[in-house]
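Entry for the shared binder. Reason: the reviewer on the internal report wants the predicted structure included alongside the sequence.
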Amino acid sequence: SIDEDEVFLKVSFSRSDKDQRLSDVAEHYRYMMPVNKLPAGFHTQTNNLGQSVPLYIEHGEEVKDCVERFRHVDRIRLLLRWLHDQVDMEAMIHQGIVRMHFPAATYKDLKALNKTWANIMQVPCLPTPADLDDVRNYFGEQIAFFFAWFGTYNKYLFVLAVAASISSVREYVYQWAGKWVLNAFAVFLVGWVATFNELFKRRSSRCKQVWGMKDWDSQQANTLPDFDPDTAGTNLEKMYRLAATSCVVLYVVVFAGAILGISLVNKNMRDAGDMRLAEWSPIVISVLMKVSSFTWSKFAIKLIRWENHRTEARFNDSLAWTLASVKLFVALFPFADLAFLEYFINQTCKPTLEEAAVSVYRHSGWPAGTNSFGPEPPWENSFAFNITRNDLAFLDRYHHTNKLGSACIAGCYPIECTEEIDNGIPKFLCTTNCWS
């Protein structure tokens, strides 16, 4: 290096296509290559999009003149596979012998890619199959599949944008028509998602066909250094995978228990007249969500390594599922708790509705906007005998009688109400302690 504190070691095959060592390595790993010279009478097939679908065969001495030239990404892939079989790079990094290893970029190819694909002038342009081939030839199929998905998404996002623009005019039409427009957009959105997924499946299948990706994961993908062939398929591997799954379940259960525990403690403190946790619980839950999500992102990688995946694709698929499932649960469960569980879990049950109401409001007083009145809180339980059902009309939608005959007020109870007259009957519209 320039500051002479690091030593770079470059390992490469010859740039010549006649490099016998490269051909031998490709033949050893049965590397699949596209055929460019077919026997007389045979022709390259094309798909419905007019793309050529080449024949892929294993590279060997007898067919090396009939296949395409090795791409830069082919050379890197074969070299990495050969290196991983010769030395344990991860162990060398762990022991401090090697600091890191990475594929070296080629200036010529990188300059051409910047000019035709990464140019800022290409931003408003939709990607073409030629652009995707450039990405694939430089970065490999795994990165190319990402840009294939992203390109398809951007293309069909225009249709969704038009529908969303039409839906936005609902604010300027009659109220009843606005609801129909919003419902129609919701149905359209579901159909758009299903259609997009199906269309990309078709495009993905075409890419696999054109790029020769059939059975890639089982035949051509590099074996991970951590893979233990002696453990593969054994009961020990099954036990490790079961343990990893159990950890996922345990983590979400502990997180859910923590959220429900905060809610329960908040209710007990609130019933005792202590409102400190009620004020701080949103911040406490937000911090818990962030810490839980960050902790899981670090712990999940170790769990997936227990599962002993052979290839990077299998490792990434399992890691994505494990990360996404827990992170989505962590992000959504607190809201699901407020929306669906709080109403039933933290109920206040007493022999009569009046006693339950006093228990709930004894420290905070009646909700604003109601006709109820009473002394300054806190109240004594005897105050319940002075309350009438008309005073508690705002609780009509927020209480029920359980199987034991007790009156129960929901965990989400009114804190502010507005009285409206509907066909001569007074009704209350209230916001609760769960949703403001």
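Summary line for the report: DSSP finds twelve helices and nine strands in the chain.
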